[in-house]
Amino acid sequence: MNIIWYYIDIRNKTEVKLVHENSSSRPAYHQCYEILRDKILNGELPSGQKIVEEKLAAELGVSRTPIRDSIRKLENEGLIHQKKVVKPTEKDLRNLFNVRILLEGYSARCAANFLKDNEIEELYKYVEIGRSGTKDEIMAANESFHNDIVKASNNPLMIDIIDRMQAIIYLFRKTVVIYNRPHLIDEHEEIYNAIKSRDGEKADTLMKKHLENDLNFYLHVMSNQ
Question: pTM for the full model?
Fold first, then answer.
């Protein structure tokens, strides 16, 4: 059973999770990681802010160990450097996303060539959820759709590079789902169809275009806020 308490941060008018370290469903460090990631990405922890383990541990009701593990993961993803918050610039986001576009395009090509038929049909389940699920379900399906395709590369180095970009990928994923990017799921279905048809070149092209659309949509939304 996953036990989570909440308190209300009156100053910032936000609800903050207090995680339970004995949760059987997900490790406490992962829950802490998600909370810290969101605080950085939504600006609650501004660029240059020093991360104090003891303070965060007290706020979240956990020991310093899951906080330390969360910080290590966020350092690996480029959001924390030398215990200080790093806020990605637009140039950073473009550079990171360009790397993602190249790697996931190649992965889609691999998926068309190497995924088994039942694994390809699993991709379509994510498409169906994308059309009928809740926001949280759509975000989870979006993540699984892309992760399964990346794994099809069967290249540990590429998979690791994408994994180290997860915080930035999450930022884009959240934006395109929350703000209902047009044709998001249609593009997933087109990629699925290309993979099902074993057309690696088309799958590669469609994936690259799909991610370019994500990038452009995110930058458009941010420019209007």
Answer: 0.80
